[in-house]
Specification:
Structural class: alpha+beta
Number of strands: 15
Number of domains: 1
Helix content: 25-40%
Radius of gyration: 17 Å
Largest sheet: 4 strands, mixed
Strand order of the largest sheet: 2-13-14-15
Distance between the termini: 43 Å
Number of helices: 5
Shape: globular
Length: about 230
């Protein structure tokens, strides 16, 4: 387990009980064997939700690549754990760790710090940010864009649903598609790709490919399968 040593009074390191539960649900997700992620997952992960919530970890959100639950760390701080929905979806967690470890300090302050991460990429933890109303989130988004623009950086998939406040500081809470320095073309992230459909299906006729790599940054393309 990777631990971020550059944290304050709320490290958000997972407890022993949480780690045991994460081992269970990661096995369940691997058994699902999803090759294609979906924008609408319906009840695909309901058994995972049940195991987490029965262990006391309430689900508070779900994105394209991850399931999000809240927990308390050993300091009784409010934290979240973000669990990858598939092996390929681990890309989001790997990219967030890369940003946290390698991004320059002058821009790192706008990213909500990670507490810990699974070395195989299945999960990451963070302090729980405050999510204001939509109108205020647009103002936060503008502030963050201004900081990144002045520093010459582009955070991919940055929008109002991915920002919030932590200790009254405007922060990006989800940055799973990495970060690029516009001038040097340096990409802070790892190589990987996601195949995404509208709804769960084992053999789609077309899908959207999201890809990241140090050489080419973040890319999106539409793909049609040859039958």
């Amino acid at each position: 387990m990777w631990k971020n040593r550059d944290v304050g009074k709320c490290p958000c390191y997972p407890t022993k009980e949480l780690l045991q539960t994460l081992d269970k649900v990661v096995d369940m997700i691997e058994e699902l064997g999803q090759e294609y992620l979906a924008f609408d997952t319906s009840e695909l992960y309901k058994d995972v939700d049940k195991v987490m919530e029965n262990a006391g970890y309430k689900k508070i959100g779900e994105g394209l690549t991850r399931l999000i639950y809240e927990f308390k760390d050993e300091n009784n701080c409010d934290c979240v754990v973000k669990i990858a929905k598939s092996k390929d979806a681990r890309l989001s967690n790997f990219n967030e760790v890369a940003v946290m470890v390698d991004a320059p300090r002058d821009v790192k302050n706008v990213f909500l710090e990670l507490g810990a991460a699974d070395e195989e990429g299945w999960w990451v933890t963070q302090p729980k940010a405050k999510i204001p109303r939509r109108g205020e989130r647009f103002k936060i988004l503008d502030q963050i864009w201004d900081v990144l623009d002045k520093a010459g950086f582009d955070c991919h998939d940055l929008h109002s649903d991915n920002v919030g406040l932590y200790a009254w500081r405007p922060v990006i809470i989800n940055y799973g598609f990495g970060l690029t320095c516009v001038k040097s073309k340096t990409f802070y992230g790892v190589r990987g790709q996601l195949k995404v459909t509208e709804k769960p299906t084992p053999e789609p006729t077309e899908f959207t490919r999201f890809a990241t790599s140090p050489g080419e940054g973040f890319r999106v393309e539409q793909v049609k399968e040859v039958q």
